[in-house]
Amino acid sequence: MDNDVSAGSGNTTVVGRLALGITLLAFGLGTTGVIHGVAASDAVSVAHYVGGAALFLVGLLAFRDRDSASGTGFVALGALWFTWAVGGHSSAHAAGLFLLLFALVALTLTLAGGDSLGQVMHGLLFLAMLVLAVAAFADSSSLTKVGGWVAAVAGAVAWYAATAAVAHWPTALPRRAAGRGVTAAG
Q1: CB 147 within 8 A of CB 131
Q2: Over the Cα atoms of the chain, what is R_g?
Q3: 42-70 pLDDT, tens per residue?
Q4: What percent of the chain has pLDDT over 70?
């Protein structure tokens, strides 16, 4: 692992990843029910203001800085978090459909590339929203908890990616050698 900071283009990426990380941690841990008396609905304020409004604003600032990848991601995710926070879904299937659409946006962000931590973060977000969508369609509390844990892990990765950029921690994932008996020089 090297110490090169490759977390995007500066402060907007750091702030955006912090906002996404905090929102995912609050939402994910609330969804798991691991903390007594805390549910996903308790994350609504965080999702509304931090994951929604702040993330959307950070996306606009990224566009201003000519970072279209971060701008697109943060604006889209901010709009989705804001919608989740203010929208009351009339049925479990409506919630499942919303989560499935959320998952598709996360899949697009994963496939768009970028640094490895960003791809892991978006990939875990995709997996969390997909599992939560299936849980909503199947009315499965077990799958809901699994999706909550995956969302919490995605939040931890987002937090690490942001913190690593400012603390100069390693951000590159280790690569495996090409074949047996191959050693890397260095």
Answers
A1: yes
A2: 17
A3: 888 888 889 989 999 999 999 999 988 88
A4: 87
Report the percentage of the chain scoring pLDDT > 90.
59
- Token code pair at residue 145: 């908890």
Contact between residue 62 and residue 71 where contact means Cβ atoms under 8 Å apart: yes
Q: Which two tokens stand for residue 169?
A: 């921690």
Please state the three-class secondary structure of 31-86 as a single string: HHCCCCCCCHHHHHHHHHHHHHHHHHHHHHHHHHCCCHHHHHHHHHHHHHHHHHHH
Average model confidence (pLDDT) across the chain: 87
Q: Which long-range contacts (CB under 8 A, 24 or more apart) does 2-5 make?
A: 2/170, 2/172, 3/168, 3/169, 3/170, 3/171, 4/171, 4/172, 5/164, 5/165, 5/168, 5/171
